[in-house]
Amino acid sequence: MSLEGTFNTIVPLISADEIHRRIKEMGKAISNDYGTITPENPLLLIVVLKGAFIFAADLMRTITVPCTVDFIFASSYGSGTQSSGNVAIRHKLIVTGRSVLIVEDIIDTGLTMQQITAELITMKPASLGICTLLDKPDARKHHVDIDYTGFIVPNTFIVGYGIDYDEHYRELPSLGVLNSDPA
Ligand code: 5GP
Known about the structure:
Blueprint: E1 2-3, E2 6-14, H1 16-33, E3 43-49, H2 53-60, E4 67-75, E5 88-90, E6 99-107, H3 111-121, E7 127-135, E8 148-152, E9 158-159, E10 175-182
Parallel strand pairs: 3-4, 3-6, 6-7, 7-8
Antiparallel strand pairs: 1-2, 2-10, 4-5, 9-10
Helix pairs in contact: 1-2
The structure holds guanosine-5'-monophosphate (5GP).
Guanosine-5'-monophosphate binds near residues 76, 83, 109, 157 and 163.
């Protein structure tokens, strides 16, 4: 597919089957760890938009303890492939006293997750966990304690399965590495 000014190729990284297998394992681990959760105070999944929306939808359907879902919007890339370091978080959430699990697509430098957790902690959740589909430890600049990781990936630019480049490629069922060459 060609985008304005660039020619992009996607090199396959993780297949749809592998993704779904791993998500089932993650859902099982989460369901075990939150086994004492009750319907009166269900687990709250806070999904980081937009990239984690497909992952969260599949993950939620593998979780067997009572859970609810809410969303926050965070964006650090805009239309480029380098993290800008500027993270905008807009949300209006009821978190106090809830067991919260943040659901993210990729943890890269860790800046986004550090800012999200710092904000959520001020709202006094009963507990705060972090679940990410992808972890890029080689890119880390800010420490993050991740509770559930789908896959550890190299420090490359990844698209597919909800994860975009300038809003493209979210619809791909698998994950791949985007190679951009000047046209
Ligand atoms: P961080 O703040 O950890 O550097 O960046 C996290 C956010 O940057 C992720 O939520 C994701 O939206 C975006 N991001 C990081 N790596 C990639 C990547 O390889 N591809 C895409 N499309 N977004 C990424």
